Amino acid sequence: MSEIKAIIVDDEQHCIDALRTMLQKKCPEVTVLAGVNSVAEAKQHIDELQPDLVFLDVEMPHQNGFELLKCYDKILFDVIFTTAYEQYALKAIKFNALDYLLKPFSVQDLQEALRKYHERRLNRQDAGIAPLEVFLQNMKTMQQTNKKIALPTINGLVFMPVQNIVRCESTGNYTKIFFTDRKQLLVSKPLKEFEELLTDVDFFRIHNSHLINLQQMESYIQGEGGFALMSDGTQVEVSRRRKADFLKKAMQF
């Protein structure tokens, strides 16, 4: 296994020390080039040392970890985010299918993150660093509907503008995605995860099995729960218990 040159970025020195020790004892293929406490220091060390991998804390004072990535037009290193539970940060990370370690994390968590890193490294010619590049694009996009979401499939990740999604339908532990071009995609995530990621970009779960893009809804048909008529011609049932909240939200469009 080839050497991985890494930098740790965290505003808490004890977190840097703990991760460095964990890597030395359990992940000897990783060589820690530096541990730094701020975005400014991180930028300087990354430019000088050219690491393969950066362990990047999200929640830091003054500038967070995301601000570091904004310093680059093209990112030539991989990132594993380290974060305590913080809804906004985790949602942004999951939206783009990026790797993260949730503090406090175990040796097993760390080794699993590094296993995924090695897989990406082996597939570099095919996959590149698309998730980070898309993440940068999303951060620079003001309009929520212009953002792209990472959709995990059997063959890897597909990046799709959220405005091109008409609706999502639950199929057990999988979700079927329906697009404006009438194509479909089966994704290995439950509908609940898409509900968490997409409610901020004008999606609404109108039924236990259905999540719709309100921007792609053409009309509402009255009934006990009623039906949402979508831009692809489908009628999607609205559950009775979700009807009032749905109509309240729909009135904003």
Describe the structure.
By secondary structure, the chain is an alpha/beta fold. The chain folds into two domains: 4-137, 3-Layer(aba) Sandwich (Rossmann fold), CATH 3.40.50; 141-250, Beta Barrel (OB fold (Dihydrolipoamide Acetyltransferase, E2P)), CATH 2.40.50. The chain has helices spanning 13-26, 39-49, 65-69, 87-95, 107-122, 124-127, 130-140, 191-198, 240-250; strands at residues 4-9, 30-36, 53-57, 78-83, 99-102, 148-153, 156-161, 165-171, 174-179, 184-187, 203-207, 210-213, 217-221, 227-230, 235-237. Strands 2-1-3-4-5 form a five-stranded parallel beta sheet, with helices on both faces. A five-stranded antiparallel beta sheet has the order 10-9-8-12-11. A three-stranded antiparallel beta sheet has the order 13-14-15, with no helix packed on it.
Please sum up the structure shown:
Keywords: DNA-binding, Phosphoprotein. With 253 residues, the protein is α/β, with parallel strands linked by helices. The protein contains nine helices and 15 strands.
Largest sheet: 5 strands, parallel
DSSP summary, beta strand count: 15
- Cα-atom Rg, whole angstroms? 21 Å
Output the CATH homologous superfamily of the largest domain: Response regulator
Given as residue ranges, the uncertain stretches (5+ residues, pLDDT < 50) are: none
Described by the principal axes of the CA atoms, the overall outline is: elongated
Indicate the topology.
Blueprint: E1 4-9, H1 13-26, E2 30-36, H2 39-49, E3 53-57, H3 65-69, E4 78-83, H4 87-95, E5 99-102, H5 107-122, H6 124-127, H7 130-140, E6 148-153, E7 156-161, E8 165-171, E9 174-179, E10 184-187, H8 191-198, E11 203-207, E12 210-213, E13 217-221, E14 227-230, E15 235-237, H9 240-250
Parallel strand pairs: 1-2, 1-3, 3-4, 4-5
Antiparallel strand pairs: 6-7, 8-9, 8-12, 9-10, 11-12, 13-14, 14-15
